[in-house]
Amino acid sequence: MKGFWRRLPAIQQDLLLAALIGVGWFGGLALLNNSALRPANPSVSVVTGMFLVLTVALVRQIPRTTLVTVSVLYPLMYASAETGLAEQLGLDIFRAPAISDAALQSELHLVPLLVVGYLAAASGVRRFTCLFFTMGSLAGLMIGLPTVVAIVLSNSPREVFAYGERYKNLPRDIPSLYDYIDLSLFVFAEALICGMVLLGANALRRRKSLLVMEQRNSALVRLRTIEAERAAAAERTRIARDLHDVVSHHMSAVVIRAQAADRVADQKPEALREAVRWIAASGREALTAMRETVRVLNNAAPGTGLEMAPVPDLAAVARMGDRLKAVGIDVTMQLPTRSRQLTSATDLTAVRIIQEALTNVMVHAKATAAQVSWQSGPRGELLTIDDNGSGGPPPANVLETAKRQESGRGNGLIGMRERAHASGGTLTVAAGPLGGWRVQAWLPPQR
What pLDDT score does 149 carry? Predict the structure, then answer.
């Protein structure tokens, strides 16, 4: 039932609630009208019920119009029914007497003003506007009602006062009004209206705060999804880089060594045998590196990142040069002299950049010599890889024009640049002193 109610549009909710209130109010009034509890003047209760139903049905749709209409018309119609003006106009509602009391029949008749004040404030009408109209309406009802009675009776025939004791005490002039104004009831009713308006304003503020929180929560959910997608993309890129570095470096050396052995197989069978042994050892090393990478990826806890990747040591970096020597490239290396464990993300970035640069020398440069320098200091890590390749200096803006291709070509330069930038460093490619290319990377100090 609660879910059904929430699914209804606001206008249908208001109309249905107003209909239920109308049935309850007028049904109860009809029962009381035929009993000993019949009110002295049922017509005022009819007026109250009409305005209550009108208020509930319309105030959320047209709050300002409903507020002004109820606040202005309700006291006028209530006074007309209460003082007998309605009877004089020919509106005989529940046999109302021609002249009735000048006081408020029941505090229950304040309900339309309480409801319109609360709902108008809760619908966005400024609370000062609500207070002005509702409290002013109450003042008109409780002060203006005796005024109307006095004016009516001052122009009524003397026979009216012979209807009973209750008519003898009715005010006949304006000064006698003050005997019919209950100041304590008036103050209490005004305070009650003020409280209802403030409650409505507070309900509006809470609803706006809830809406803002829901919007922020939706935004956070969207941001979390975007961040998760970015993290997944970054993780896929990291995995691709690691696998590319491991496979490319080892397999490139294996292919080149196999091609060289094939060319001399007929003249030097022993060279072929030596090459096969070297290929087997290099293949085992490549498989071990790949298995270690896959193991880390399979066992990594959610939320872990680069620090979980297998990190080689300086001896592994030296073996990279040995692999190039095995394929005919003379490599000299200047590595950090102090003993250190390559455990940080910066160290891994440095190792992978050296590995990829040497792979490019081996595969693309057509070089016979290369130099690797790794200078480590308080200002960061400086990596320099030079070769004497015969292809000449690199083209201008080679890093900006390098693009990944479906064949995999172009991943080397882009991968090195992305690794350097991810660590907060820089990477440049220019002509080197040996006649070929110089790849130089600076990485910030380790944290």
Answer: 65
The single-letter code of the amino acid at 373 is: S
Residue of 245, 386, 255, 388 whose CA lies nearest to 317: 245
* Segments making up each domain of the chain, as ranges: 2-181, 314-447
Q: What residue type is assigned to position 126 of the chain?
A: R
Query: From 3.40.50.720, 2.40.30.10, 3.60.20.10, 3.30.565.10, which CATH number describes the 314-447 domain?
Result: 3.30.565.10
Q: Give the pTM.
A: 0.52
Residue 335 φ then ψ, to 5°:
-100, 165
Sequence-separated contacts (24+) of 415-418 with Cβ below 8 Å: 415/241, 415/244, 415/245, 415/352, 415/356, 416/352, 416/353, 416/356, 416/357, 416/441, 418/237, 418/241
Helix axes 111-122, 127-154, angle to 10 degrees: 160
Taking the C-alpha atoms of residue 49 and residue 25, their distance in angstroms, rounded to an integer, is 6
Roughly what angle, to the nearest 10 degrees, separates helices 314-326 and 345-363? 0
Structure tokens at 359: 């792979």
Q: How far apart are CA 162 and CA 58, in angstroms?
A: 44
Q: What is the pLDDT of residue 348?
A: 83
Q: SS3 for 73?
A: helix
Q: Backbone phi, then psi, for 436, in 5-degree steps?
A: -110, -135
* 21 φ, ψ (degrees, to nearest 5): -65, -40
CA–CA gap between residue 97 and residue 76 (Å, rounded):
18
Other Cβ atoms within 10 Å of 398 Cβ, number: 14
Q: What pLDDT, on the 0 to 100 scale, is given for residue 157?
A: 59
d(Cα 142, Cα 185) in Å, to the nearest integer?
9
Residue 71 CA to its chain's centroid (Å)? 41
* Residue 191 dihedral angles phi and psi, to the nearest 5°: -65, -40
Out of 139-153, 294-308, 404-418, 424-438, pick the least confident.
Answer: 294-308
Sheet containing 330-334: order of strands:
330-334, 369-377, 380-387, 437-443, 426-431
Query: How does DSSP classify residue 394?
Result: P
pLDDT at 433 over 60: yes
Q: Is 435 exposed, middle or buried (0-12, 13-18, 19+ CB in 10 A)?
A: middle
Angstrom distance (rounded) from CA 215 to CA 223? 12
Residue 398 in tokens: 């080679």
